[in-house]
Amino acid sequence: MRDVLAGNLRRARLARGLSLSELSRRSKIGKATLSQLEAGAGNPTIETVFSLSRALEVPISDLLDHREPTGPTVVRAADVEVLRGAGVDLRPLRGIESGGAIFEVYDQQVRAGCRQDSLGHVGTEHTIVQAGRLGVRVDGTDVELGPGDYVGFDARLPHAYTAPEGPVRSVLLLEYRSDQRLHAASETPPHLLQPEDEGR
């Protein structure tokens, strides 16, 4: 994941014409940390990746994905690196592009008694709870969801997830317009975190 993020972060930053200093100012991430990330060092967190997505105005997958030929895709849970945050563990599973929209599919687990805050990022966020009780706060509005419940909202708004009664398992889908992709010219659908594909 570090190597993929390093190349994509530099590519996105240069495509936006930003210096490390300016990206640091926009993302509120230290310049030294950004330099480490572009060098493939450090240990990126959910907060870091989402802050970069917001500052660069690109989908999360533009920072994390490898592109590969089309065809059946099987993603084994044990083969995917977990992106950890203050309260959430995310496993990026798949990126799907169709009809001018891009969906990124994540297995999301909110740890018991924890809270995951986001200042906002590009796209629309969709969450479907599989197990547990999930607290969701979006721009000052609170809702609680149980198994089978769904919530969707503009991800640019500040939002947070909590697991007040125990761990929560959910499916997170991030939706973007195709023109928000850094790799918008590509005809190949993105697939998240496929390390065997080195053909960038």
Describe it.
There is one protein chain. The protein is an alpha+beta fold and about 200 residues long. The protein has five helices and twelve strands. The protein is about 25% helix and about 35% strand. The strands form three sheets. Strands 2-3-4-11-6-9 form a six-stranded antiparallel beta sheet, with no helix packed on it. A hairpin with a 2-residue loop joins β3 and β4. The chain is globular.
Gist of the model:
The chain has 200 residues and is α+β, with helices and mostly antiparallel strands.
Helix fraction bin: 10-25%
Q: Averaged pLDDT, please?
A: 83
Outline the biggest β-sheet.
6 strands, antiparallel
Determine the strand fraction and express it as a percent band: 35-45%
Q: How many β strands by DSSP?
A: 12
Number of helices, counting only DSSP H or I runs of 4 residues or more: 5
Category by helix and strand content: alpha+beta
Instruction: Give the CA-based shape.
Output: globular
Query: For the terminal residues, how far apart are their CA atoms?
Result: 15 Å
Low-pLDDT stretches are 183-200
